[in-house]
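Hi P.,

Sorry for the delay on this. The queue was packed all week, but I finally got your sequence through. Input first:
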Amino acid sequence: MGLRGPHPGTGGRPRKSLAEKVTEGNPGKRKLKVLDFEKIATEPEGVEMPPPKEFLSAAQRDGSTLSASELYKEAWKWLER
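Then the structure:
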């Protein structure tokens, strides 16, 4: 015998695709917030690198030191560029 009816939770009208929602404009029907980009700074402001936390360079069970603090510093330098 074949399947009888839709599986639970799948009955009803099919969902709209994202492309259809976008072409309709405002799919949520909420009031949209308009941003004024003229007031926003053109250059992002940076901050000094905070020191790595102690647990990033803590001693491990096998006696070696965790090298996450070096990774933290390298990632911060990369993000500065």
